[in-house]
């Protein structure tokens, strides 16, 4: 496991906004895991954009030539109330390369913006666990192994204020020096000043791969079919699910938009559209109902909690 | 101090801490960390350490009062990381139980011990020969505390709180009701030596006592022996302790002198309405001169009988416009000699008051006239 300094930490605007929203809407303190990736950046980008040049690498020559420049990017997070333990056991093993556990965060209202007793013990545990370490992208010359050493602290000011509502600070914990090094948190948005990020973009969708091959009469394919009953069942279930979503939009029907039947083109599209709306409407109703149920359960839990605390 | 907006489980822990702490811990500030800010669950504790105070924020979660609290240390202690080394070792947080009110106190005491060790380690790392030597001679003193102070605009200094005198001061005074152990400390502040300076500068010295001790023995009044260049603590402390021991013996003896004086007053003034039975510093009598009844408050200084008692007269019949009884100014200039016998002191006081009360009566009537 290597204790290499991270040069900078990046987070996309929407991710940070959603993290802050989660923090401000939670009834109490919360904490959670930060996922993302760390990439080894090539030396200073040759950009003609002055804004990106100003924020570029400070002095690559003074840092040791062998230490790589690391850039951590937070892509997603997982949050839960802070009295519950961090769900470290339920992490995918081995960690996927697209989103590894790179750190954790803690959000507590109206507290000073510095790591607490619990923050430092948790960060130390994460940083010193070998099982959680991961390999950054593009590490070619020397294999690096990094622990999840990032820590993002979210607080709010001691007095409630109208404009200044949040504070946050990002750290990298260095186990060799036992110190929390403050790191700047770059917020990535869309716009000309973020053009350099287009190059470093890597598509990493977590959408599951659904096997939906075309049924062909190829004899070779028939031979290869040595599916077990389990995979067959799973395939059928997936197919059924897909069919459900495509209900009313069969390929045969789409045929009617072309050729001889295209005379009633408008009526057909309108029909499809209204069906789509009806479907969406049903879906929102489902969401509404389940949200109401969640809220009801949440109220009930709060009542029980207050009872335990002796506050009724 | 503890309001009802603190969840009962947390408030039980606070009350236990205030009642059982071996030194006085205060809560300076409390506020809420909940979204709707109704329940108080964040507290700033002020904890005495090395004759200074450290401020720690104890962060509970009112919604989950069964969860252990978190602690945020002071901004200058960012490298103080208790419980980090040694993964599975037990500490006050690992077997936390919110239903047992003693746990918060145990946590604070454990963290304070670790903090003392942390500061001691920091001081030990200072590269200063003189300091290393002084520490080696003082380290055996039980209860010694030390800390580093440094700031951007301040030179580095090492502070010591050296406990003096092995005797139990609480037992020296009969009938004392002190809850905490009383102690006298010598505060020693060493500037951290520069490599190039040849003669180490003298440390700054100050006597400090626990605040309750002031009613009986004032460290401000005792003059410190002078510090000679090239001296060390091992030479200095025995002299100082001997001096203090004598002064404390005197202070104990003086309590008896004051007690005798108060007893001598009683036959003349009657039974006192109120008297300080432990330190014998205060006594009040109800007196009458003709139809005028009034109270006399005696305050006996620590230097009694060298210094005479200060008197205040308070009328029982005259009130100002706020309905507060009229009082005289502090009277401490009247015939007095420390060489008088105790009984003579009491008699002279009585004679003086017999005259002074007439002046006081006139003074009261004048105020009453002005109010009409």
From TrEMBL, chain A:
It comes from Cinchona calisaya. This is Uncharacterized protein. Residues 44-64, 120-135 have a biased composition (Low complexity). InterPro entries: FAM175, FAM175_plant. Residues 44-65, 113-138 are annotated as: Disordered.
UniProtKB/TrEMBL annotation, chain B:
GO terms for biological process: cell division; chromatin organization; DNA repair. InterPro entries: BRE (IPR010358). One of its GO terms (cellular component) is nucleus. It comes from Cinchona calisaya. Belongs to the BABAM2 family. It is found in: Cytoplasm; Nucleus. It holds the Pfam family BRE. This is BRISC and BRCA1-A complex member 2. The keyword Secreted does not apply. Keywords: Apoptosis, Cell cycle, Cell division, Chromatin regulator, Cytoplasm, DNA damage, DNA repair, Mitosis, Nucleus, Repeat, Ubl conjugation pathway.
């Amino acid at each position: 496991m290597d204790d290499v300094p991270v040069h900078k930490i990046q987070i996309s605007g929407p991710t940070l906004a959603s993290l802050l929203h989660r923090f401000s809407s939670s009834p109490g303190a919360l904490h959670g895991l930060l996922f993302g990736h760390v990439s080894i950046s090539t030396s200073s980008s040759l950009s003609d954009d002055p804004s990106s040049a100003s924020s570029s690498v400070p002095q690559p020559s003074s840092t040791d030539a062998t230490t790589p420049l690391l850039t951590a990017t937070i892509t997603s997070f997982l949050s839960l109330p802070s009295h519950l333990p961090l769900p470290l056991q339920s992490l995918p093993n081995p960690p996927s390369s697209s989103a590894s556990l790179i750190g954790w965060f803690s959000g507590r209202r109206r507290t000073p913006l510095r790591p607490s007793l619990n923050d430092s013990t948790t960060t130390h545990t994460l940083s010193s666990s070998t099982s959680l370490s991961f390999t950054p992208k593009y590490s070619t010359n020397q294999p690096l192994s990094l622990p999840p050493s990032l820590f993002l602290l979210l607080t709010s000011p001691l007095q409630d204020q109208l404009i200044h509502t949040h504070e946050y600070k990002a750290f990298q914990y260095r186990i060799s020096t036992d110190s929390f090094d403050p790191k700047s948190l770059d917020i990535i948005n869309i716009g000309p000043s973020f053009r350099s990020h287009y190059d470093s973009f890597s598509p990493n969708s977590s959408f599951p791969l659904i096997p939906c091959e075309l049924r062909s009469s190829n004899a070779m394919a028939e031979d290869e079919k040595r599916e077990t009953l389990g995979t067959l069942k799973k395939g059928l279930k997936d197919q059924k699910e897909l069919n459900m979503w495509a209900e009313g939009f069969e390929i045969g029907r789409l045929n009617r938009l072309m050729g001889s039947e295209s005379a009633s083109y408008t009526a057909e599209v309108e029909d499809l559209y209204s069906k789509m709306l009806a479907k969406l409407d049903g879906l929102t109703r489902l969401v509404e109902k389940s949200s109401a149920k969640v809220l009801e359960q949440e109220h009930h839990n709060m009542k029980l909690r207050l009872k335990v605390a002796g506050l009724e | 101090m503890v309001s009802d907006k603190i969840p009962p489980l947390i408030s039980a822990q606070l009350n236990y801490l205030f009642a059982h702490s071996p030194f006085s811990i205060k809560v300076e500030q409390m506020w809420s960390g909940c979204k709707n800010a109704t329940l108080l669950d964040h507290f700033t504790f002020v904890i005495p350490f090395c004759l200074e105070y450290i401020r720690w924020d104890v962060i509970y979660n009112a919604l989950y009062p069964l969860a252990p609290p978190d602690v945020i240390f002071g901004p200058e202690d960012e490298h103080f990381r208790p419980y980090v080394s040694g993964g599975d070792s037990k500490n006050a947080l690992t077997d936390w139980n919110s239903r047992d009110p003693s746990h918060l106190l145990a946590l604070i005491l454990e963290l304070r011990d670790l903090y003392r060790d942390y500061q001691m380690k920091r001081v030990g790392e200072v590269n200063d020969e003189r300091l290393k030597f002084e520490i080696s001679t003082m380290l055996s003193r039980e209860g010694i505390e030390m800390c580093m102070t440094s700031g951007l605009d301040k030179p580095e200094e090492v502070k010591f709180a050296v406990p003096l005198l092995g005797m139990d001061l609480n037992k020296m005074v009969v009938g004392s009701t002190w809850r905490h152990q009383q102690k006298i400390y010598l505060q020693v502040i060493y500037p951290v030596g520069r490599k190039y300076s040849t003669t180490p500068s003298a440390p700054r010295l100050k006597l400090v006592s626990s605040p309750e001790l002031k009613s009986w023995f004032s460290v401000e009044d005792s003059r410190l022996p002078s510090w000679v260049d090239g001296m060390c603590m091992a030479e200095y402390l025995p002299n100082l302790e001997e001096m203090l021991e004598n002064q404390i013996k005197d202070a104990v003896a003086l309590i008896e002198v004051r007690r005798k004086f108060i007893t001598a007053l009683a036959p003349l003034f009657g039974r006192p309405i109120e008297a300080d039975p432990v330190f014998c510093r205060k006594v009040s009598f109800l007196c009458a001169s003709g139809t005028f009844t009034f109270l006399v408050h005696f305050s006996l200084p620590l230097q009694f009988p060298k210094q005479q008692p200060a008197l205040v007269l308070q009328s029982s019949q005259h009130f100002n416009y706020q309905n507060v009884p009229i009082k005289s100014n502090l009277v401490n200039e009247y015939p007095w000699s420390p060489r008088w016998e105790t009984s003579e002191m009491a008699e002279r006081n009585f004679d003086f008051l017999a005259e002074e009360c007439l002046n006081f009566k006139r003074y009261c009537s004048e105020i009453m006239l002005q109010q009409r």
